[in-house]
Amino acid sequence: MTEARPPRPNLADGTSAHYRDAEYYDRAYRTLREDVELYLLTALEHGGPILELGCGTGRVTLPLARAGFSVTGIDISQEMLERARGKLRAEASPVRRRVDLRLADMRTLRLRRRYRLVISPFNVVQHLYTRRDFELACATVRHHLEPRTGRFVFDVLLPDVASLNRNPTRRYHLGQVVHPAGGKRYDYRESFDYDPMAQVQLVTMRFEDPDDPAGTFETPLAHRQFFPLELEALVHYNGLEVVERYGGFDRSDLTEDSSSQIYVCRRS
To answer: pTM value?
Structure first.
């Protein structure tokens, strides 16, 4: 008998739960550098000021500011912004002056400023689950982007068909992790459940307490899956033009073996 499919949490949980524990998030991803280097290089080529849609805990924001760029970072998560502000306070005063962090939704943001570069790093666009969400985000980009010289750069994962077809009842053991709050060590597992109608993959991150099963907890993460031709069409019909497209943060070509899609766009 096939094991019953676990119930899917709503998209609100899949959008926000992973970002509530900002300290764990920050520790988990702090060593990622490839995307930071690409966004730094892009900023050096196109200049600032920079608007970052989904700045999180400042993993990309702060290196840009240290490099001399003025960055407005917005995020929908208060917890992530608080973590970013705490890190910003530890920076030198010139860096602090270059960063403006705001609580805002990328679908509705309207600032009275144009930007040479608008970025949305680390799969933030994959939290735009509907066509309307994507349209609203593109309207935000167009509103803030310099008409001729401005560039919008973002990255999303390339859908992995094998991952999308995984058994949703199976949990994959990925070793142990230490949670920064208390230093507790957990067995870490992930399960994957793809909704083909919504094109949303739910990743359930499970932290199992080896000493106390009651201490086990799960965190859902929902990612909209964008296929390359679909994404190109969505960009095109929302007033933007793809200038470059990469399959790696080293600017390698997009192929079936790529893990990410990186788009460089301008206003049509």
So the answer is: 0.94
